[in-house]
Design goal:
CATH topology of the largest domain: Immunoglobulin-like
CATH class of the largest domain: Mainly Beta
Number of domains: 2
Shape: elongated
Helix content: under 10%
Strand content: 35-45%
Oligomer: single chain
Radius of gyration: 25 Å
Distance between the termini: 22 Å
Largest sheet: 11 strands, antiparallel
Structural class: mainly beta
Length: about 425
């Protein structure tokens, strides 16, 4: 079973600003002059293992992007918090009480600027530069930006937390077929073949109002300044970021953004003994088993320093109703394959590969055997719904991983066929029969 680490890499450049006076000249700041440098951000998000999301709830696999037409509602931007060098106070080089900075990029995840308010479009949004001087500061960052995160006081970096929330209820539209392979018809007689999914369908299907919280992991340091500290050689941007340097780190920084929550996904298919009719997957519930209380929902706090989740004390379940999910049915050799029927063929065509998956975000949790149940609700046409309850084997739902459970449905039970864990990708666990 393979587990890898997800890292969103954001490159931030602190760009030189023009100093305005009565004579208006453009002069690079000299060592020790205290000349200000504008904190400008040019994110280039890259993920070592990840896929795009079908909804605005999860960050795109390549960049923080959004639908241009939804700029006012679906583009929260990135929050950057800057402290002094030991994180015991705020960074205020110009005397202004500004330490929580809002960054916004265009719909392609480029052209990032610091702002104080949105215009009607990104192009109409005015930049409000945040300045660095020779004073050393530390950078913390999170996504999505929320202006209500006040950060009113700080004694140490453990005070830097943002509210987070895991939704107890929600709904998922599974009309997009995100299965790894789909049946592509090539003839009027229904003939065809199994083909790798379309790039546009390589998405996560989830509740649209879930929030995918990210934090700056700082594997290469947090320190920044204008690169002109007294008694130090001027910072050379050609050499790249030096954010572990406590004397003159300079104005470039790479933000490796990690996920704060875990993802759990489910696939269900008819293993061939459930029904000859269409069967739909209508709902799943993740719940504590018997007297267990390990699964938490509701409100919590995420530390900006390391992503640790605290104050999530509500014991509960996670429920998602599902629409437009028809089970794939496994059939015998000689049968007619199609949009909802397949013949297993080694590792190339399996229930895992041809079934779509639905997902939800949960708090990271380590649980043992007999501690967490999943209830899968299926329905055959207009017949009454049937609930299948499966107690999951012990596992560790770690932040930034997606644990994918594949269930095979039979007439009398649901069987877990596979469990996989990967870095915000399909991490398939062994199949579980229902």
């Amino acid at each position: 079973m393979k587990t890898t680490k997800t890292m969103w890499a954001i490159s931030i450049a602190l760009l030189a600003a023009t100093s305005c006076s009565e004579t208006e000249t453009e002069i690079d700041p000299e060592p020790g002059s205290g000349g200000q440098v504008s904190l400008g951000i040019t994110p280039n998000l890259k993920v070592e293992a990840g896929t795009k999301a079908a909804t605005k709830s999860m960050v795109n696999g390549d960049a923080i992007t959004y639908d241009k037409a939804l700029y006012s509602t679906a583009a929260p931007g990135l929050g950057v918090v800057v402290t002094n060098s030991d994180a015991t106070g705020w960074y205020v080089p110009d005397g202004a009480d500004i330490h929580h900075v809002w960054y916004m990029g265009d719909e392609k995840g480029k052209g990032w600027i610091s702002i104080t308010e949105k215009g009607s479009t990104f192009l109409e949004t005015k930049e409000a530069p945040y300045y660095l001087t020779e004073t050393i500061g530390k950078v913390y960052a999170y996504y999505p930006y929320d202006k209500t995160n006040s950060f009113t006081s700080i004694g140490n970096e453990s005070d830097l937390k943002i509210p987070v929330k895991v939704l107890a209820t929600g709904s998922i539209d599974a009309s997009t077929n995100n299965a790894k392979k789909y049946w592509k018809s090539t003839g009027a007689d229904g003939s065809g073949s199994w083909t790798s999914r379309l790039t546009v369908n390589d998405v996560k299907l989830s509740e649209t109002t879930e929030k995918d919280y990210l934090y700056f992991f700082a594997s290469e340091g947090r320190y920044v300044n204008n690169g002109r500290a007294k008694g130090q050689p001027p910072f050379d941007p050609e050499g790249g970021p030096t954010n572990n340097d406590t004397k003159n780190p300079g104005y470039l920084i790479n933000l490796d953004m990690n996920h704060g929550l875990a993802m759990v996904s489910f696939r269900v298919y008819d293993g061939g003994h459930l029904s000859d009719n269409a069967v739909t997957f209508n709902k799943f519930v993740i719940q504590n088993h018997a007297v267990s209380n390990v699964l938490k929902t509701g409100d919590g706090k995420m530390a900006l320093s390391n992503g640790a989740i605290t104050e999530n004390t509500t014991t509960g379940s996670v429920t998602r109703t599902i629409s437009n999910y028809t089970l794939m049915r496994q059939i015998d050799e000689g049968g007619s394959q199609g949009e909802n029927a397949f013949i297993a063929s080694g590792s190339q065509v399996t229930g895992q590969i041809v079934s779509r998956s639905v997902s939800c975000l949960v708090y990271p949790v380590t649980f043992g055997d007999n501690q967490i149940d999943v209830v899968i609700t299926l329905q055959e046409q207009s017949k009454p719904t049937v609930d299948y309850t499966v107690t999951l084997p012990g596992y560790d739902w770690t932040a930034g991983t997606n644990c994918v459970y594949t269930f095979s449905a039979g007439r009398n039970k649901l069987t877990l066929m596979d469990v996989t864990v990967q870095e915000w990708q399909d991490d398939d666990q062994p199949d579980i029969p229902l």
